[in-house]
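Saturday, quiet lab. Running sequence design on the structure tokens for the scaffold JK sent over.
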């Protein structure tokens, strides 16, 4: 049953502009890419893993990661269909990436410094891969490779997606530690660009040579955090913490502009829209404009956004905005127009979210998965997971990507 759960709140909305079309979206933190064909052998399957279903395949399933289990949820039906027990328990999940060609999820576990793989065809756990200390983020930065950043070492561990072997370690940080992020795109190849909260530079990495080859200096002090790339304008946007959002021309490897708003960032799948937020403000930047033109601004009353997920309705892009102190998602058009608010459940610190194929998925409470239809902008289902939700990854229906 569809449960209407929308309500409006007073907000100050400024600005207008062109609405840019959005292709199918796998989520603001998605990095799903096709890679080399998988190894067909079963020799390295984890004997302790559980097969979650008699009928293999994961299309239309949301994988919900909790400290001790991975719950499988049929999103259309709104039902939890199976659980995979993770041994040992007490996992602390970071990024979850989907390698389409190998039909595998790769989930980063910060507690045991591992990457846990899930076979999506058989719905079973595979042997975990050991990486460096304190990993959080991972990226499918090069064909057939997953790049996992170990914050405790300031380096990337490169894992082959078919063999799941660590084949290289790439130094990215200048001082051997620090939380870091990475951005990559086919138009930037063979380079990717990395940040580090301890370094006032952007590291230039050659993903083919698996090496740091240059640094783009912002200043002498401070650190960098969020980083995004807009393909239309060919610009890098870098959070220079507490100072500005630096705009970089990656071809020239120099800073060409700076934006006053500093904080989190996300792009749509086509990298034609950039969401930038800090404090109580959200800006939507035209990712096709080399001058970083603003399409819209939203100032929230008593709210501080900490997550923005791009979705679409009737082919038009929408932004789902949540904060740790709110129990709802605010839906905003790309020109800054407030569309609606959808109640999710309770306020949740560091709320896990994902979106794809007409669904917005979020931790409605610490232990409940809320499914929202992005077409009707109504809450469809509430699924009790039973444990604290750390991460969510939806697997699209075959052929719908």
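Result came back. Writing it out in full:
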């Amino acid at each position: 049953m569809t449960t209407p759960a929308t309500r409006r709140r007073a907000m100050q909305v400024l600005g207008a502009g062109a609405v840019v079309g959005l292709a199918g979206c796998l989520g603001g933190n998605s990095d799903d890419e096709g890679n080399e064909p998988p190894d067909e052998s079963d020799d390295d399957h984890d004997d302790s893993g559980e097969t979650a279903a008699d009928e293999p395949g994961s299309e239309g399933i949301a994988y919900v990661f909790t400290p001790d289990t991975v719950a499988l949820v049929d999103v259309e039906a709104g039902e939890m269909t199976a659980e995979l027990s993770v041994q040992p328990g007490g996992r602390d999940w970071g990024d979850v990436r989907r390698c389409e060609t190998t039909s595998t999820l790769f989930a980063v576990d910060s507690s045991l410094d591992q990457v846990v793989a899930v076979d999506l065809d058989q719905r079973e756990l595979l042997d975990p891969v050991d990486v460096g200390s304190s990993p959080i983020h991972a990226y499918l930065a090069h064909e057939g490779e997953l790049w996992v950043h170990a914050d405790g070492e300031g380096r990337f561990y490169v894992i082959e997606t078919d063999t799941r072997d660590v084949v290289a370690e790439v130094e990215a940080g200048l001082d051997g530690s620090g939380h870091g992020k990475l951005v990559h795109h086919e138009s930037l190849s063979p380079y990717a660009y990395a940040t580090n909260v301890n370094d006032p530079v952007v590291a230039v990495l050659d993903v083919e040579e698996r090496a740091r080859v240059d640094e783009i200096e912002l200043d002498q002090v401070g650190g960098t955090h969020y980083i995004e790339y807009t393909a239309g304008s060919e610009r890098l946007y870098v959070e220079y913490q507490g100072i500005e959002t630096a705009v970089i021309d990656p071809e020239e490897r120099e800073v060409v502009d700076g934006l006053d708003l500093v904080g989190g960032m996300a792009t749509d799948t086509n990298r034609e829209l950039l969401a930038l937020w800090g404090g109580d403000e959200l800006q939507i930047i035209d990712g096709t404009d080399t001058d970083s033109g603003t399409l819209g601004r939203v100032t929230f009353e008593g709210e501080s956004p900490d997550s923005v997920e791009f979705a679409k309705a009737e082919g038009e892009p929408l932004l789902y905005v949540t904060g740790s102190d709110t129990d709802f998602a605010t839906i905003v058009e790309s020109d800054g127009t407030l569309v609606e608010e959808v109640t999710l459940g309770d306020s949740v610190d560091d709320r896990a979210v994902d979106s794809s194929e007409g669904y917005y998925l979020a931790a409605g409470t610490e232990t409940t998965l809320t499914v929202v239809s992005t077409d009707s902008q109504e809450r469809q289902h509430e699924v009790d997971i039973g444990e604290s939700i750390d991460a969510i990854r939806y697997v699209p229906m075959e052929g719908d990507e």
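Notes for JK: The longest strand covers residues 135-142. Confidence is low (pLDDT under 50) at residues 1-53. Ask whether to fix the surface positions before the next round.
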